[in-house]
Design a protein that fits this description.
With 920 residues, the protein is mostly helical. It has 6 domains: 175 residues, P-loop containing nucleotide triphosphate hydrolases (Rossmann fold), CATH 3.40.50.300; 55 residues; 171 residues, no CATH class; 131 residues, no CATH class; 64 residues, no CATH class; 50 residues, Arc Repressor Mutant, subunit A. Helices cover 64% and strands 4% of the residues. The protein has 47 helices and 7 strands. The strands form 2 sheets. Strands 2-3-4-1-5 form a 5-stranded parallel beta sheet, sandwiched between helices. Strands 6-7 form a two-stranded antiparallel sheet. Strand 6 and strand 7 form a beta hairpin. Helix 27 runs antiparallel to helix 28 and helix 45 packs across helix 46. It is globular.
């Protein structure tokens, strides 16, 4: 490896990653100040990688390219794109669209990322790879996102990724949880050695001054001596206060510009504003700027001055500070002229031509503004909403008409919402509010303001306001906007108590849009606003839906939301499951994260606890990856429910307190209800029945902040169980009587089936058996957890009636289900009841589930459990990788670790592992 003065430790660390690439992949981020030697370190690592036999792929961020989507990614992948035709069709098409070489639907950014990952792993299987990315902070955002996606997934592939980031810049790559190291300044010994190489002829005083000002910065130690040789040394020494080092270096580079010929300054100015490093393009643009033909000779003086490098095909600045110095040393009008010159020569590249035209003026220009608005569609087609937002925002700046300017800003805000960027939405809305907007545009602004502000406590006034705006929008013919506004109003009713009048108003205005009843937002608004009183109507709509005919996963998500709201978890998991599959296929990971989190409660209710936890964990990871701050108190409250049932009481109670602190001030009844139910789960697992009853009881008190119209339904049978053991049956019967009134209105299967359990458990002995028989006669095929709970309660009742022989059958059935589900506390109860009934409970009989089966599965992480289940279902490593956004090699590595944990040696044996497939 190239020897860099004072960098032995850092070089050794990177060499170690390269040397171990056959054993494991890795990604690392290198942070440092400008000029600290990040690029030199990266070049040395690339040289070492080549010597070690790795294929080296390189890219770098360039400020001028930051608005050109996927420019950095294309530069990285250019040497390996010959393998792209071997990718699966959706991935190949996504990559082609990103690089502007394909047609079709706009690709999802994460489909592009998956295509990149698979392209690289395909190549790495033939030859290990070293990926080096310099100045990641200046990569175009889509390229940076893809690089971050890849970096998180390299542990099992023979790929090393090293990216450098300038200190002070926050980009996804820096917050991806990667190993990082900060590149410090050189120590005094190394600094003196470097200065000795480049400071020949300096006086002692000048050398000491440079050492002091450079503070170990290698670029300063190399460049400041050059500046001193061409400046008045006495004047330099007399400066009362040195400039910040970055400015000092820029000044050193700027000093060399003054002595360059005018044509050379034209050429390097064009290079500084260009988003390409093509030498012929730079010379063509410079020729327009200079109004004369310029040859390569025009840039040779800049090479001699140490400002640029070129190889006959490409030109690049020796350091990003040189580019910065060039731009700062020129006037605004000169920079505009350079962009205009490039725009004139880019006749066959309309995207870049318009981009440079937009940078060539300081005032307003409606022609360019219109072109930019059209340009945003091209950005979307290439999978870059970020660039589309920029194009619309710049278009608005150039627009003379106030109303048109406002519409463009609102459209940009809608795309920012799609990215989950609440901060950017707010910025754009503030700008739009200063324009002249039509009533419909004002309504659209209200919807955009509402999107990230659900759950204002008791704000019935805002709900009525939104309903009024929705009615106006509908009257003006914009039903689409009306439905968006009504769904926002409904969500306010769901998260926090807005009162019956507000809920009724949302339902009333929604029902006035009868012509839109087939739109999934219609049923979602009804169900979310009035889940009890409009539950039957919503369920009738859901029952009429032919799921196979719904192709849009966003529509399935809304239908699933409606089903969850009205307490129909079977409908919900079916809809969410289909949405999950389609979203994975399409690479829409942002919405996928929400689907995964939302479906967890329904899987929990139906007894698929492992699936609930796996969905929750993956949803959390994807929410972080896609930059969505949804893993907050809402997601934590769902996690409380999962952990509470699984018996992790201490963690549940601590997390519940955290959620309560966050949600209590806003009186978010939905979250507070989940907190109380989760506490009840945890305390029942601890055998603290009286305290469990007190916690659960709060969720059923209309005057308590933790009351919620339908979330309380998830706690009904646990309230009855706690009451039975705590001697509180009388009070619990009063709660159940109130719920019976709700049951005459709502078809909620969660409520009705929980009541079946509660009625039987709380009944007097002379009525109990008929109620248990009726409960077990309900359709419980998709409800194994609830059925097992009823069987345990019934078997226990029979045993107490001294009917031990009859008790054994329901107790055995309950025990089997509890072992499969992983309900350890209730499984132990069932075993105890079986022993009390006179049956010994030893090892499982042949053909029966092994009680330890779930314990074996519990050693797997959530992701390992997903992979094991999919492998058991017969999916190949590649198919699993496509579903979970992992490389096939990573899937294989996980299976290698999974097999010994489950004491199996093949995929065939996985399929017969007790509890694995049934857990799904």
């Amino acid at each position: 490896m190239e020897q860099l003065i004072g960098r032995d430790e850092e070089l050794a660390a990177l060499a170690s990653l390269v040397d171990e690439v056959h054993l494991r992949g890795a990604a690392v981020a290198v942070h440092g100040e400008p000029g600290i030697g990040k690029s030199s370190l990266l070049r040395a690592a690339a040289d070492y990688g080549r010597q070690a036999g790795l294929g080296v792929l390189q890219t770098e961020g360039v400020e001028a390219e930051a608005r050109l989507p996927f420019a950095g990614l294309h530069r990285l992948l250019r040497p390996v794109l010959d393998a792209a035709p071997r990718l699966p069709a959706p991935q190949r098409q996504a990559l082609n669209a990103a690089f502007g070489t394909g047609d079709g639907e706009p690709p999802e950014p994460f489909m592009i990322a998956l295509a990149t990952l698979n392209l690289l792993t395909e190549k790495a299987a033939q030859q290990p790879l070293l990926l080096v990315a310099d100045d990641v902070q200046w990569l175009d955002p889509p390229s940076c996102d893809v690089l971050t996606f890849i970096a998180r997934r390299l542990s099992s592939d023979p790929i090393v990724l090293v990216g450098t980031v300038r200190t002070g810049h926050q980009v996804p790559f820096t917050s991806a949880g990667l190993p990082t190291f900060h590149l410090p300044g050189l120590d005094e010994k190394a600094a003196r050695a470097l200065l000795a190489e480049h400071g020949t002829g300096l006086s002692y005083a000048a050398g000491e001054r440079i050492l002091h000002e450079a503070a170990g910065n290698p670029l300063a130690l190399v460049e400041l001596p050059v500046a001193i040789r061409t400046a008045d040394e006495a004047g330099l020494a007399a400066a009362p206060m040195p400039l910040p080092l970055t400015a000092r270096l820029e000044q050193a580079f700027s000093a060399r510009l003054g002595g360059l010929p005018p044509v050379t300054r034209d050429a390097i100015l064009v290079a500084a504003v260009d988003d390409s490093d093509d030498l012929q393009e730079v010379l063509a643009g410079a020729s327009v700027l200079a109004d004369r033909y310029l040859s390569i000779a025009a840039v040779e003086a800049a090479v001699a001055a140490g400002l640029i490098l070129f190889d006959g095909l490409h030109v690049r600045f020796r350091h990003p500070l040189v580019r910065s110095a060039v731009l700062q040393s020129e006037t605004v009008s000169r920079r505009h002229a350079a962009n205009a010159a490039l725009a004139r020569i880019l006749t066959d590249e309309p995207y870049r031509r318009t981009w440079h035209r937009a940078q060539s003026i300081g005032g307003q220009d409606d022609t360019i503004a219109d072109e930019l608005e059209e340009l945003h569609v091209v950005s979307l087609r290439r999978g870059s909403a970020t660039e589309a937002i920029w194009a619309l925002e710049r278009s608005a700046q150039l627009t003379t008409d106030s109303a048109k300017r406002g519409r463009r800003l609102l459209l940009a805000a809608e795309h920012a919402f799609g990215l989950g960027r609440a901060d950017l939405v707010d910025q754009l809305l503030i700008k739009a509010s200063r324009t002249t907007l039509s009533r419909l545009d004002l309504a659209r602004m209200e919807w955009l303001r509402e999107i990230f502000n659900d759950g204002v406590p008791g704000d019935a006034g805002r709900v009525f306001e939104l309903c009024g705006i929705a009615a106006e929008s509908a009257a003006a013919g914009d039903t689409d906007l009306a439905l968006n506004l009504l769904l926002g109003a409904a969500l306010r009713c769901w998260w926090a108590d807005t009162g019956p009048a507000a809920r009724a108003r949302v339902a009333e205005v929604t029902e006035s849009l009868g012509q839109a009843a087939a739109d999934p937002r219609y049923v979602a608004a009804l169900a979310v606003a009035e889940p009890v009183l409009r539950g039957r109507q919503a369920l009738e709509i859901l029952d009429a839906v032919v799921i196979e005919n719904v192709s849009d996963p966003a529509a399935m998500w809304l239908l699933g939301m409606a089903a969850h709201a009205v307490g129909a978890p079977v409908h919900a998991v079916d809809l969410f499951g289909r949405a999950e599959t389609r979203l994975r296929q399409q690479g829409r990971l942002g919405l996928l994260s929400q689907v995964l989190v939302m479906q967890s409660i329904d899987h929990l209710e139906l007894g698929d606890w492992d699936r609930a936890l796996a969905s929750l964990e993956e949803g959390r990871q994807l929410a972080q990856e896609t930059g969505q701050p949804i893993w907050d108190t809402g997601s934590l409250s769902v996690r409380c429910l999962v952990l509470g049932l699984r018996g992790q009481a201490d963690e549940t109670l601590a997390m519940a307190a955290e959620v309560e602190r966050a949600a209590g001030g806003r009186r978010l009844g939905d979250l507070l209800a989940c907190v109380q139910v989760a506490r009840g789960y945890a305390l029942i697992n601890l055998g603290e029945y009286s305290q469990a009853y007190d916690e659960l009881r709060r969720a059923f008190d209309p005057d308590d902040p933790a009351f919620h119209a339908t979330e309380r339904f998830h706690g009904v049978m646990y309230l009855a169980e706690a009451a039975l053991h705590a001697g509180r049956a009388h009070d619990a019967r009063a709660v159940v009587a109130a719920l019976e009134a709700d049951a005459t209105v709502t078809p909620s299967s969660t409520l009705h089936l929980h009541l079946c359990y509660a009625r039987a458990v709380l009944a007097e002995d002379d009525a109990a058996e008929d109620l248990f028989t009726a409960a077990l006669g309900a359709d419980l095929v998709r409800w194994p957890w609830l059925r097992a709970r009823i069987e345990l309660a019934y078997g226990s009742w029979l045993r107490r009636q001294r009917r031990g022989a009859q008790a054994r059958q329901p107790l055995r059935s309950a025990l089997t289900a509890f072992d499969i589900i992983g309900a350890a506390r209730w499984a132990e109860q069932a075993r105890g009841e079986l022993r009390a009934s006179g049956e010994r409970t030893g090892p499982a009989a042949p053909g029966q589930p092994d009680p330890s089966a779930h314990a074996a599965l519990s050693v797997l992480s959530a992701q390992e459990l997903q992979i094991a289940r999919l492998a058991a279902e017969g999916l190949s490593n590649r198919e699993i990788g496509e579903r979970l956004y992992l490389s096939p090699r990573t899937v294989g590595s996980h299976l290698y670790r999974i097999f010994p944990k489950l004491d199996v040696t093949s995929r065939t044996q996985l399929a017969t592992t007790p509890g694995l497939l049934s857990a799904g």
